Amino acid sequence: MAIDVQTENSIAIVTLNAPESLNALTIPDLLALRNQLRSLQDDDAVRCIVLTGAGDRSFCTGANLKNTLPTSESFGRTGFLGVEAEVSHGGYTRLIDLNGLELWKPIIAAINGYCLGGGLELAMQCDLRIGASTASFALPEVRVASVPAAGGVQQLLRAIPAAHAMKLALTGDRIDADLALRIGLISDVVEPEKLMSAVMSTAQRIAGNGPLAVQAVKRLALETSHLCPRDYTAQANLMWGVLRDSQDRIEGRRAFAEKRVPLFHGR
């Protein structure tokens, strides 16, 4: 698979490009995806990232089972290795977990078909999920006597009500886009031919905001939501202080007073 990246204005579109395997991920694919996302985080020209799959059948169907066979070594040994070291012994599940990459730029999943297993785990790590009406979603691991290894159960419990999350995790059932919308797994459903235009419209609105403020909001959401009110309010006030004297915040206040569109530079 190629991990294709193109940039339109300040929006990077990352495409999982293996439609012949429904965009299933091999170990080299996962390594390339991680490298691309980390590079985009450090690219000042990029303010928002869109993640999607090539073709109209699939966003991502998780790991490519034909190319991610179990290692011959015990997990008791390889499980204590670093992520990259474990890869050399055939380990791949931790590669789907993007948390260690510290990606603070917003990521929108444009879900254009099957979003299954590790593919759903990837999508749930995105900040917004917009689905085509033909999209479908599942964590089917229990059907092959396994579990979602990249936090899929926990992500579901944070994304949707527990009753729906547990039903999906325990049955492995697949749901359609309309149900995914009703339970809050995705924010919008659009017709397939309008998916990318709808996603890009949202991405452009995000990219037009103060880039440091947008990243700060994401960081607060990910790092402090588990805290008690006193502590998460303190962290929010601290982040406000970090941004208080930034050029962008001053520009935003001036633009508001002058009734014009602000021009932000991420400084």
TrEMBL record:
| Bilayer-crossing regions | none
Q: Name one GO biological process term.
A: fatty acid beta-oxidation
Annotated CDD domains: crotonase-like (cd06558)
Which Pfam families would you find in this protein's record? ECH_1 (PF00378)
A single Gene Ontology molecular function, please? Answer: lyase activity
Q: Which InterPro entries match?
A: ClpP/crotonase-like_dom_sf, Enoyl-CoA_hyd/isom_CS, Enoyl-CoA_hydra/iso, Enoyl-CoA_hydra_C
Keyword annotations for this protein, in alphabetical order, are: Isomerase, Lyase, Plasmid
Q: Do you know which PROSITE patterns this protein is assigned to?
A: ENOYL_COA_HYDRATASE
Q: Which family does it belong to?
A: Belongs to the enoyl-CoA hydratase/isomerase family.
Q: Supply the name of the protein.
A: Enoyl-CoA hydratase/isomerase family protein
Q: Which organism is it from?
A: Cupriavidus oxalaticus
